[in-house]
Amino acid sequence: MTNPSFFPDERMWSYGFWKGKDGKGCYNTACLGFVQVSKEIPIVQPIDDLKPGEPAWWHCSIHQDKNTGNWWITRLISNPPHNVDIGYWPKELFNLFDNGADLAGVGGVVQASPFGSSPPMGDGVVR
Questions:
Q1: Which residue, 36, 88, 94, 107, could crosslink 70 as a Cys pair with Cβ 3.0–4.6 Å?
Q2: pTM over 0.70
């Protein structure tokens, strides 16, 4: 996400958003909800603030722990191969996912400032 009113600059940032019971939701760790567990990889960080040699894209898994019912986000890292649990959303946040889900979505939204038209979705590269 690039959003200078939400983040301190105009860089692209990773983020997490949840929407659960009663339509309530929150970004990152701005309110009670997402539980950050990784000390290595935060849920929110500038995309260009990566370690040398680290790709500028992420492969992640969102899955439900069968024992606790909590929803985990795990970063899948291929070189060297290892997975890092970033954190989880407690099952109590959601009222429709007691028995799992068939699909978890990841996406983006394009929205202009209040004074402009919406730009096209893309990677920021002018072609």
A1: 88
A2: no
